[in-house]
Amino acid sequence: MKVVILAGGKGTRISEESRLRPKPMVEVGGRPILWHIMRQYAAYGFREFIVCCGYKGHMIKEYFVNYYRNNSQIEICLKNQRAQVLVKNSEPWKVTLVDTGLETLTAGRILKVRDYIGEEPFLLTYGDGVSDVDIDKLLQFHGKQKKTVTISTTQPEGRFGALQLDAEENQVLGFKEKARSDQAWVNIGFMVMEPGVYEYLGDGSTMLETVPFERLAADGQMAAYKHSGFWSPMDNIHDREYLEKLWDSGTAPWKV
Q1: What single string gives the DSSP state of each residue in 64-109?
Q2: 188, 154 contact by CB (below 8 A)
Q3: DSSP 21
Q4: φ and ψ at 183, to 5 degrees?
Q5: CA distance 221 to 145
Q6: How far apart are CA 151 and CA 176, in angstroms?
Q7: b/e string for 231-245 if b means 16 or more Cβ within 10 A?
Q8: How would you classify the pairing of strands 31-32 and 27-28?
């Protein structure tokens, strides 16, 4: 089963980094977050990737073109202009990098890589978030549900305190950190899709998460895999710093 990664957005909310590189190439622990995501899938045996490139996509292509050389020990004879690989240290991945356009929305990006996916089920996720989702359990759940699409969902950690107010007196009656169980369920990516999903994508002119998902839900063709473990997006510079801190401490939950 192939893994499709949406990596073409401009990442405007983390412009401190994305003005220099595409968001999936922003580094955590000296490696692009895209690499971290691929490592997780590879740990479950999924090593064939299709990356939907867009904004500054040439940087993603350059990274993988040079990946083997940059991660191996090489001896270079300048006199004879000859290079020899001494120690190979590269991932056993097959990576297809597709330019899906600068302004293309997510539904359109999937349609543009359809020929590379083939008429078979595939895994899909975003190129800017890490998690410790158990991919094997996700697939088992998807198989039992027999739906066109399964999305992984979670209740994120509360970031804001919840206030109890007296509406009439405008008085604060209480204050507490918002518990995770109080949060709404959100889509975190790590999706499984059957070929039937193409029928819901239209001409690709919408975001996947709007009309296509709404139609799938209305038809009873979408299941939600509930994930109670770790998930974090990298929407802004504070998220990147948080992930970097976890990695440096040796406690990154997504590390494999």
Answers
A1: HHTHHHHTSEEEEETTTTEEEEEE------EEEEEE--SS--HHHH
A2: yes
A3: S
A4: -80, 155
A5: 9
A6: 31
A7: bbbbeeeebbeebbe
A8: antiparallel
More confident residue, 178 or 95: 95
Portion of the chain with pLDDT greater than 70, in percent: 93
| 221 neighbors 149 (Cβ within 8 angstroms) | yes
- DSSP states along 179-228: PGGGSPPEE---EEE-GGGGGGSTTS-S-TTTHHHHHHHHTT-EEEEE--
Q: What is the DSSP letter of 20?
A: T
Task: Name the amino acid, one letter, at 30.
Answer: G
Distance, CA of 10 to chain centre:
14
Output DSSP code: residue 13. G
Q: How far is CA 85 from the centre of its chain?
A: 32
Total residue length of the chain: 256
In this predicted model, which residue has the larger pLDDT, 155 or 121?
121
Contacts of 226 (CB under 8 A, 6+ apart): 153, 154, 185
What's residue 167's pLDDT?
66
Question: Which residue do the tokens 């990356």 mark?
Answer: 51
Residue type, 194: E
Give me the sign of the Cα torsion angle 176, 180, 184, 190: positive
Q: What percent of the chain clears pLDDT 90, i.e. is strictly above it?
A: 72
Work out the average pLDDT over 108-118. Answer: 98
Phi, psi of 124 (to 5 degrees): -140, 135
